[in-house]
Amino acid sequence: MHSIETRKRQSFLRNEYACAGKWNIPIVKSQPLCDEIKLIACSDTKSQEIRNRECGVHFFVDDYRFEHIYDYPERTLAKYSQYKFLLTPDYSLYADMPLWRQLENVAKNRWCGAYWQSKGLTVYPTVSWGLASSYEFCFDGIEQNSVVAVGMIGCKRGRLNFMRGYDAMLDKLSPSAIISFGTPFKEMHGNIIAVDYLASRKEVR
Predict the structure, then answer these.
(1) Is residue 13 part of a domain?
(2) Domain encompassing residue 90
(3) pTM above 0.85?
(4) Which end of the chain is more exposed for a tag (fewer CB within 10 A), N or C?
(5) 19-20 and 25-26 as β-strands: parallel, antiparallel, unpaired?
(6) Is residue 8 included in any domain, yes or no?
(7) Rounded Cα distance, 57 and 89, in Å
(8) In the prediction, which pLDDT does 8 show?
(9) CB–CB of 79/40 below 8 Å?
């Protein structure tokens, strides 16, 4: 049982941002597209950045590398504030995860984005999905015509499921631009901005 003081803390309730959808998922507001899109992995960011300040930060890495961001967001705020923009954390939505875990990870993704935007940072939501059952919530918390990001690494084996989710995203969100981390499939429609993931590694050198 929590004390009354703890019970009222926003770090416990996570209710400080506008929400949307059946599940009251925090909203990541639409923001204009930056003039140049370069990316650096969250695991390659530095406390004192010098050469990569014109990059955006992506989270297309193993979840354990950024799990702490949701729990202690203030600890990395100064570091991430150095960069041009942020993609929201790509918490996994594996098809074999129970739906409550997938829903939780979508909410964490959006909460982090809403938090960063509340601090004045430019943020684009990363969108991911599992099977069709996840479509009920996995696009919530993203405004129409937003710039969004998708990760292509590891999608070739599940190409059909990926494209079903991608097309559902287009229908639901009508994104103004899609940042594709990795080579997009030829059948992907939309205003796609492809980012070479190997080139993103070179940015830190």
Answers:
(1) no
(2) 23-202
(3) yes
(4) N
(5) antiparallel
(6) no
(7) 9
(8) 63
(9) no
Q: Does the residue 70 lie in any domain? A: yes
CA distance 120 to 106: 22
The total number of structural domains that make up the chain? 1
In angstroms, rounded to a whole number, what is the distance separating the alpha carbons of residues 173 and 104? Answer: 20
Smallest CA-to-CA distance from 31 within 142, 180, 193, 172 is with 142
**Exposure of 97 in the CB half-sphere (CA atoms within 13 A):** 15
Tens of each residue's pLDDT in the chain, 205 residues: 566 666 667 667 778 899 999 999 999 999 999 999 999 999 999 999 999 999 999 999 999 999 999 999 999 999 999 999 999 999 999 889 999 999 999 999 999 999 999 999 999 999 999 999 999 999 999 999 999 999 998 887 889 999 999 999 999 999 999 999 999 999 999 999 999 887 777 665 5
Nearest to 86 by CA among 143, 135, 41, 44: 41
In a domain, 126, yes or no: yes
